[in-house]
Amino acid sequence: MIDANLIEAENAARQADLAADYDALGARLARRGVDIEALTARAAGFGVAIPSWGTGTGGTRFARFPGEGEPTGIMDKLDDCGVIHRLTGATPRVSLHIPWDKADPALLREKAEELGLGFDAMNSNTFQDQPDQVRSYKFGSLSHTDAATRQQAIEHNLECIEIGQAIGSKALTVWIGDGSNFPGQTSLSRQFERYLDAMKAIYAGLPGDWRIFSEHKIYEPAFYSTVVQDWGTSLMIAQELGDRAQCLVDLGHHAPNVNIEMIVARLIRAGKLGGFHFNDSKYGDDDLDSGTIEPFRLFLVFNELVELEDTPGLNLAHMIDQSHNVTDPIESLIVSACEIQRAYVQASLVDRATLEGYRGENDALMAAATLRAAFRTDVEPILAMARLRAGAAIDPVSVYRASGYRARVALSRPKSTGGGGGIV
Amino acid sequence: MIDANLIEAENAARQADLAADYDALGARLARRGVDIEALTARAAGFGVAIPSWGTGTGGTRFARFPGEGEPTGIMDKLDDCGVIHRLTGATPRVSLHIPWDKADPALLREKAEELGLGFDAMNSNTFQDQPDQVRSYKFGSLSHTDAATRQQAIEHNLECIEIGQAIGSKALTVWIGDGSNFPGQTSLSRQFERYLDAMKAIYAGLPGDWRIFSEHKIYEPAFYSTVVQDWGTSLMIAQELGDRAQCLVDLGHHAPNVNIEMIVARLIRAGKLGGFHFNDSKYGDDDLDSGTIEPFRLFLVFNELVELEDTPGLNLAHMIDQSHNVTDPIESLIVSACEIQRAYVQASLVDRATLEGYRGENDALMAAATLRAAFRTDVEPILAMARLRAGAAIDPVSVYRASGYRARVALSRPKSTGGGGGIV
Amino acid sequence: MIDANLIEAENAARQADLAADYDALGARLARRGVDIEALTARAAGFGVAIPSWGTGTGGTRFARFPGEGEPTGIMDKLDDCGVIHRLTGATPRVSLHIPWDKADPALLREKAEELGLGFDAMNSNTFQDQPDQVRSYKFGSLSHTDAATRQQAIEHNLECIEIGQAIGSKALTVWIGDGSNFPGQTSLSRQFERYLDAMKAIYAGLPGDWRIFSEHKIYEPAFYSTVVQDWGTSLMIAQELGDRAQCLVDLGHHAPNVNIEMIVARLIRAGKLGGFHFNDSKYGDDDLDSGTIEPFRLFLVFNELVELEDTPGLNLAHMIDQSHNVTDPIESLIVSACEIQRAYVQASLVDRATLEGYRGENDALMAAATLRAAFRTDVEPILAMARLRAGAAIDPVSVYRASGYRARVALSRPKSTGGGGGIV
Amino acid sequence: MIDANLIEAENAARQADLAADYDALGARLARRGVDIEALTARAAGFGVAIPSWGTGTGGTRFARFPGEGEPTGIMDKLDDCGVIHRLTGATPRVSLHIPWDKADPALLREKAEELGLGFDAMNSNTFQDQPDQVRSYKFGSLSHTDAATRQQAIEHNLECIEIGQAIGSKALTVWIGDGSNFPGQTSLSRQFERYLDAMKAIYAGLPGDWRIFSEHKIYEPAFYSTVVQDWGTSLMIAQELGDRAQCLVDLGHHAPNVNIEMIVARLIRAGKLGGFHFNDSKYGDDDLDSGTIEPFRLFLVFNELVELEDTPGLNLAHMIDQSHNVTDPIESLIVSACEIQRAYVQASLVDRATLEGYRGENDALMAAATLRAAFRTDVEPILAMARLRAGAAIDPVSVYRASGYRARVALSRPKSTGGGGGIV
Questions:
Q1: What is the pLDDT of residues B368-415, one digit of tens each?
Q2: In whole angstroms, what separates CA A400 from the centre of its chain?
Q3: Quick one: signal sequence residues (chains A, B, C, D) (predicted)?
Q4: What DSSP string runs through B340-382?
């Protein structure tokens, strides 16, 4: 997909500058008592999953403006994911979305192996009707008033598990759009009971070594109430289901102003944090590229994760979940993976002993300054060095552009039509 | 469309109860010094326009779940609007959306006349690409960096005016989705200059007896910045263009917590309030049915309009703009028209002399109580009596359901497919 | 305090009109199959507690503008509460705030009995330093880094229980301002552990027939993080402490746009809803008068309470918690009590069988209309009749004003000075 | 105040490391074609004013927790401002608040000169009543219903101008808390007319070389409506008053999610941007330390200012406006001045030619990356070098702490009492 020689040549042109920057940073960190190599090792060990649907151009309810060479199926999507991982070394897994990504499991495994990829959490879809679907999800799926519709949604989730087992996935993420658009439309309490019952049926079919993730979202597509509207409800669900049920936090699914890093800390305390959907947003669930709107907020989330990383049993599934409306999705995913990795490294840089000292003395000013000092450290040389050493690209976007990949696939992939939005 | 005999029969069954309720309310209002007949006359004189696109089922970026008998073109849409007006007597005009509603103007006029309808403001579309379109609006339309794209968008707006002239419209509403999804993507200042230049070109083509409405929206489909993001920018636009340029307020296009009734008062003061897009919302621009989420807020908007109704030159274009995702659009539009009319009548009920007395004494408690007393008055008998006298239905939804209209048109209109959202 | 003859005379002047309105409403409700007497009985049975501090004029961080005759101590406050209950018949209990309301329990009981009042939940204060206090709460109280400060705060809460036992209270409400103003200032996780430990110490001292209420608040006085920031954290606290720990929902303590009625439904499902602090707000925790900003939202909260009122074990403590900055606090509390009662009666009016029918058919439009029909019914005659029959005032504010109470107490109570805000 | 020898000694200990960091950064920037010396010169030329009230500990409506050695009057406050400027070299002016800072103008000038300080915009206060004040501002000031109260507020503002003239100020900032707490309490339109009339009276008294700044704020202390609620209203005011009237943007005074950098761009376009009140916030108008919550947002504001810095007539008054509740105010002001300067230097670093190239091609990804590349550059060596060369401190907070200043003034300044908040 991406010629190894190209990567090597491009890296060669940047290597001397990188070495200089890396050394200068290393010296500066050493003065603070920080070993740059330890950080580079952490960067190298970090990975975040790519959602298969992220490789296509997203849209809004108003329109979708596709780009050139849109992937036409899961095999194309895996190719694109392979490119991202080849260039960043930071995206070793792909998360599938059923039914769109259905394919022969053997072929999926083979293709992934070829690309150096594995499979992350499976994602079911009951927020959209499929052409061959017997019952509509217009008024809900797992929480529908009609038992047969709920059963159809349960079976779809069980099928997702089955597919996942065949390809080596170990988790199922359940996000539904169920809710209501009018006060009164639904019984808030009974709708939740129906949801819990349906989730219990899915949980009963969960293999012993799997986890199920409950994902909350304050609104959209339902605009007055949403069954799993916040982390409190998600926590109740995970508690009700059992040990293998955990909560997944999507950074864009909260009310304005909400302090997400506190939710992270609380869910870890409850033993119920399962993972993340990374993205950024300014207004609603805008699904913008990670770290592009409020990079400090992303850092603060990772600050909690690093502070609490030794919590027994903590095992997080990191995934990107973005809608790429005006960029080449591959480029956005490359940059986003690097931004997430950046936040992780910056958080790893926090001088925690010093921080705790200030906290103990209620020295708010210096405690905050300690955190900011880590955030404002430009760790780009660390990220780039980790990539270089892994055989990936010092500057992944430049190499991607130089590779001509998009133009190449545009030749073989049919032109996508626009239309009025759509998430697939 | 709706049999007059059916309306009459249904009204007959409700007339005695209505008379009793109307008399009881009249007596109660008389005690407050209010003449119920004057209110009923105001109700009868009130009208709000229907957007042609509101007759179809809306959707979100996740999905669209169409209903039975969706209108397939502007003639179907006009039929549906005719039904709404026939039953409510409160929706005498239709607002068209180009290019979707393009048709022979003579036929449009004839059809509308037959249905007792007129045409309200024209609406252009440059937020979505059409199959035959030369240049894409992916990166903007009237504010695009490319002059030819801007020119294409200008010409589309001029065409909307031309069509509007042929059917008797007197205004053009311009709403664009232009903006950006990333900090840095666009120059906030130069993008605005380009927009202003394009609007001036459109304004130059505006007939002398027309108005142009600038409509602001805080976000969506652009998620980091939007060219016409708030009423302040909309005001600058209207000031820059000239006397026939005014601002249109869509109730759902504001930041959380914003006091919309203040914006109404300010724009009237500036001589720049042109009209409204009515809807309701809880989270973002949810486009829910008017008066269903925060009815008191709708009342407060009308409270300003009634308080300032004698402002010289005030001439408001009232239009509904909603997305009907889970209801029959005709029913939602019927109910919404009535809710908007209700707020107007409630606001007309405010004892303004008493209110001003309390305000003059800074008697906050009684001033507020005076407003609430009007709001909590159940004016349904007034609305129903206005409908009865106009030959419309006392209970429009019941009559609509009894008429079997939807099932009837479902026979002749082809089945709509779902798909991933879309506003058309 | 308020002359019974005055009440009687004022009622006499309004009685005929009330009878006419009550009969007309009764007839209209009867047509819907609703017995007005049953509703009047429910209204009569409803009570909400008054917070002692609500009788004084509140303020902001910018200023406090006291009124005439401000209460100078708990006995004055009880007098004012007595007036409110005398006129509304709807506020039978008072909620005390320690240390401000400390007094000889025997005198408190005697005074309350004389006024026909009881005592509701006790409220501790660890968000402000008292003159004689050994350790400061500047950097927290129950979650402070310093063990001795935490112990001081624990002991204060235990003292509140002790005082409460002496006067017949059965609950303790714990709200603290602990949190941080800077990212990094405090460990979000360890601060929460310290809080939990402190609460366990208080819980250990809770009498067997008492409950402890955990109250969340998204922000203020802490502006970056708050220990008990949302209902999810409050739920974790209540679960951790035990059966007698429950959550208290203050309507003003949530992020923008949050759907509070869903939280109500969820906490009832978890068996953890303990009660409410009623108020209204537009922007932050504005503590405005109940039902004055978004009356429909208050109705929707009561809609959940009425729908779920038969839930086994449900036992709610209803309390007003408002800041009266520009009104006579007695008048605001009178009006607020009536607005809360109004929402309860409107919610009791919902035709639940019909509603469930529509919900079962996913008839969103008619389900919503059913709810709105109840909300827009003007139940004032029911509330007034309940007051009349209880010997309270048909029009409580008019009678209060006619009584000259405020001017009378202003003679004996020293003039209050303004100053820069303050909640006491 | 701060011993020059101490500064020199502290700087000496850090100078070698700074030189190394500065050189490494210089080399890295040179590779991008950026001259570090040009940036250091810009940093050196940057200044932001200190508000006199910022030197005292702030509070909330719940409490105020004063620190040691609180300033007791304007002379103490000037001393504290002198310390800040001495250590940062970035705060050359002080902004006074009348009536609290009233003093003999000759003494003020003398004191300021001694400390190397000048005077920035004057600030009036009509949101709080003073002990000797004839009419109360409880129900408003410049927009009060009572003409005599408005006149009192006008005269206070004219007095502020008079004082300002005597000390060399050239601007008056008008911020008022006027508004309402209840829908209906006030006429939104007439209240605004009264405000405009009062402002015109003040404007009539404005010296020819002065400017008047109108400052908007969405809410607080008024909680339902605020007369100058947003920038649109502020723009109308500035337009109505005349050329010397401009708008001041306080970063914390907006609705949630609002894009402030767009407002900056719009007001510059309208020729009406006068200056800033810098601070940061997460929820409401939290008045937290600049750059501590969302540093990227601060950068984006400066990105507009730098992009548009050559706009003819642009002349900005930069001021900090924060409430320091849990830190030593001097330390917070030191850090905040540096953070604001940091954002300015980072924005100055943006490669604008490259950025414009990407924008012209709608290369959203690379345009955004260009901006972020500037933001993530750690410009601390530039700021520190600018300080060193100006004779200020490389590490101002360390030197401040080493100086023992706070403990020293605590000996001579009387202990402040806490109390319930207050802004003074």
A1: 999 999 999 999 999 999 999 999 999 999 999 999 999 999 999 998
A2: 22
A3: none
A4: HHHHHHHHHTS-HHHHHHHHHTT-HHHHHHHHHHHHTS--HHH
| β-bridge pairing B211-215 and B171-174 | parallel
CATH of B4-18+46-351+394-410, one of 3.30.565.10, 3.40.190.10, 3.20.20.150, 3.30.950.30: 3.20.20.150
Which distant-in-sequence residues (6+ apart) come within 8 Å of D200 by Cβ? D240, D241
Nearest to B368 among D184, D254, D360 (CB): D184
Instruction: Kindly give the parts of chain C with pLDDT less than 50.
Output: 421-424
Radius of gyration of chain C (CA): 22
CB count in 10 Å sphere of residue A62: 19
Question: What digits encode the pLDDT tens for the residues D328-380?
Answer: 999 999 999 999 999 999 999 999 999 999 999 999 999 999 999 999 999 99
Q: Can you spell out the DSSP letters for C161-198?
A: HHHHHHHT--EEEE----EESSTTSS-HHHHHHHHHHH
Give the closest-approach CA distance of C195 to chain A in angstroms: 13
**∠ CA(D35), CA(A378), CA(D336), 5° rounding?**
80
**Helix, strand, coil percent content, chain B, rounded in steps of 5:** 50, 10, 40
Q: Please name which of D271, D293, D225, D217 lies closest in space to residue D249, comparing C-alpha atoms.
A: D217
Q: Strands B179-180, B225-226: parallel, antiparallel or unpaired by DSSP?
A: antiparallel
SS3 A250: strand
Q: Does D293 touch chain C (CB under 8 A)?
A: yes
Nearest-CA neighbor of B117 among B88, B138, B139?
B88
pLDDT at res. C419 = 59
Residue segments in chain A with a per-residue pLDDT below the cut of 70: 418-424
Cα–Cα distances in Å, from C303 out to A185, C255, C418, D204? Answer: 13, 21, 40, 56
Residues 329-388 of A with CB under 8 A from B: none
Average pLDDT over residues D217-221: 98
Assigned token pair, C71: 């209460």
3-state SS of A171-186? EEEECCCCEECCCCCC
pLDDT of res. D350 = 98
ipTM over 0.95: yes
- φ/ψ (deg, to 5) at A272: -125, 10
**In chain D, which residue's Cα lies nearest the Cα of B259?**
D225
Q: How far apart are CA B401 and CA B412, in angstroms?
A: 18
pLDDT at position C422 is: 41
Q: Give the sign of the dihedral formed by CA B370, CA B375, CA B376, CA B382.
A: positive
For position D111, what pLDDT does the model report?
A: 98
Q: With CA atoms as reference, report the closest residue to D184 among B205, A56, B404, B358.
A: B358
Over residues D72-112, the pLDDT tens digits come to: 999 999 999 999 999 999 999 999 999 999 999 999 999 99
Please provide the DSSP assignment of C338-356 as one string.
Answer: HHHHHHHHHHHHS-HHHHH
Residues of chain B falling short of pLDDT 50: 421-424
Please answer whether residues A329 and A55 qualify as being in contact, where contact means their C-beta atoms are separated by less than 8 angstroms: yes
pLDDT given at position C371: 98
Please answer whether residues A188 and C304 qualify as being in contact, where contact means their C-beta atoms are separated by less than 8 angstroms: yes
Residues of B with Cβ-Cβ distance to D182 under 8 angstroms: 364-365, 367-368
- Amino acid identity, residue B314? L
B180 contacts in chain D (CB < 8 Å): 364
Alpha helices (H) along B99-230? 105-114, 147-167, 188-204
Domain ranges of chain D: 4-18+46-351+394-410
Given this model, what pLDDT does residue D416 score?
85
H-helix or E-strand containing D247?
Answer: strand D245-250
Contact with chain B for residue A390, Cβ under 8 A? no
Buried b / exposed e along B48-73 (16+ C-beta atoms within 10 A):
bbbbbbbbbbbbbbbbbbbbebbbee
